[in-house]
Amino acid sequence: MLLGLKRPVDGGNRLVEPRGPIDDEELGTPEPTLDEIASKLGLSVPTVLHNVRELRQATGRPVIVGFGISTPEHVRMVCSVADGAIIGSALVRRIMQAEDAGQGPDAIVETAASAVREWMTGLP
What we know:
The protein has one domain (2-120). It is an alpha+beta fold. The two termini are 29 Å apart. The radius of gyration is 16 Å and the shape is elongated. Helix 5 packs antiparallel against helix 6. The protein has helices at residues 24-27, 34-40, 45-59, 72-79, 89-100, 105-120; strands spanning 2-8, 16-22, 64-65, 84-85. The strands form two sheets. The protein has a two-stranded antiparallel ribbon.
């Protein structure tokens, strides 16, 4: 389940207005991209990044983003405003593809490590 942050709220104590949960059925895909998630929220990726930046500044707490991140470019964009990026489904997908291709345990671990090294190229 994804809890969307819809938009900044003027005044009051809340930084963002919760949009509410988004489930896989609403997204229409089991592994949505950052762009697809932003679109379902009725936002652009720059607006999502702005909201993350505002949340981080307002709370003074670390913010880690983990939705739809599957490329080094996604990592770069998210880490430009957040303290970290979580890559879940994309890593699982790479591992499953290696397993489906008949790779053994050592090759599967190398596939996962290679994917992580690739995504780390997006770090600042």
